Backbone:
């Protein structure tokens, strides 16, 4: 091919304009993506804790059926100050808690959820009277700890009335009507909490092509993300496709890898560059107990440190799901393990020291 004269491809631009355009292109190429900006804090944080605090799980543990009265009693007696103190003592930099899951009970009020599911009075609501997220955020903020929240991407399948009212079909369905309602519910919580929360972890995105990638102008990953960020545009989002041991981003709307792992030995950092995979921050979520949210420790502290270090080696963050006691605090055997992880994280990065 014959050599072209300088700037022949850009006849309408001066040399100075071209130089500026080149600088701008280099700057844009070197700048972090919007996703990495929202989740950039996770690289420095390195270590956080998750807890499942669910009405049906707690009711079984207490030997009684789930009920509105029992749920409100549990939420009213959740000791946010003690839990926040425990998290600070082990060096955790963020905390992730379930808003609710399959039972239809949630740990914060939501007028939109009540309206859409046909609740006619506050006494009949399965959304707790107390806004535990707001109270927990206040306690954590005093100690410099961030708060994230967990929510399934589908309706609470254990509550048949809610499933019907929300028009949810479990499986690979478009679920257009459901998603419009679910996004309204999410938006309600997001606007309520604003910057009290810094991120969401959405579970059960098992059918992304059917539900979120349809080209019919309806609900999508984009509208889902917009609802979650309605109260805080800086919220970091992760959409979970289930247990996947390689680092995998589901959508450009992932700010971080959801990273669910049942066996941390199998976790595999594939295609990681500077702590990111395809624009999403590397992250692994695993559980310390025998199962998610329950049981005795299944690892030694040395093992937990080793698994955490594998993630840190990729400039990633690791979140350890840790069972809560009835009052919303950790048992001593788990505190010991969390403290060991926090101390190891501090050695990797002194800024994470308790």
Residues:
């Amino acid at each position: 091919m014959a050599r072209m004269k300088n700037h022949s491809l850009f006849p309408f631009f001066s040399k100075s304009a071209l130089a500026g355009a080149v600088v701008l292109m280099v700057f844009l190429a070197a700048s972090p993506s919007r996703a990495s900006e929202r989740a950039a804090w996770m690289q420095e944080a390195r270590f956080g804790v998750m807890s499942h605090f669910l009405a049906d799980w707690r009711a079984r543990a207490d030997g009684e059926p789930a009920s509105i009265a029992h749920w409100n009693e549990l939420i009213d007696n959740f000791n946010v100050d003690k839990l926040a103190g425990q998290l600070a003592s082990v060096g955790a930099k963020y905390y992730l808690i379930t808003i609710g899951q399959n039972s239809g009970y949630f740990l914060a009020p939501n007028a939109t959820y009540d309206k859409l599911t046909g609740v006619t009075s506050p006494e009949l609501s399965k959304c707790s009277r107390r806004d535990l997220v707001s109270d927990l955020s206040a306690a954590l903020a005093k100690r410099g700890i961030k708060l994230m929240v967990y929510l399934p991407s589908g309706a609470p399948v254990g509550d048949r009335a809610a499933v019907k009212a929300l028009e949810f079909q479990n499986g690979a369905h478009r679920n257009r009507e459901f998603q419009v309602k679910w996004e309204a519910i999410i938006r309600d919580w997001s606007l309520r909490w604003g910057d009290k929360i810094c991120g969401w972890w959405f579970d059960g995105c098992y059918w992304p092509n059917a539900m979120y990638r349809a080209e019919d102008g309806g609900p999508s990953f984009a509208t889902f993300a917009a609802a979650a960020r309605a109260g805080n545009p800086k919220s970091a989002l992760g959409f979970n496709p289930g247990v996947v041991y390689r680092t995998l981003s589901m959508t450009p709307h992932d700010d971080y890898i959801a990273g669910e792992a049942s066996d941390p030995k199998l976790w595999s950092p594939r295609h990681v560059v500077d702590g990111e995979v395809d624009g999403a921050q590397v992250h692994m979520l695993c559980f310390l107990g025998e199962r998610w949210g329950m049981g005795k420790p299944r690892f030694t502290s040395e093992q937990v440190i080793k698994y955490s270090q594998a993630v840190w080696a990729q400039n990633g963050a690791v979140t350890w799901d840790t069972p809560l006691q009835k009052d919303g605090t950790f048992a001593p055997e788990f505190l010991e393990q969390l403290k060991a992880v926090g101390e190891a994280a501090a050695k990797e990065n002194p800024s994470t020291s308790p």
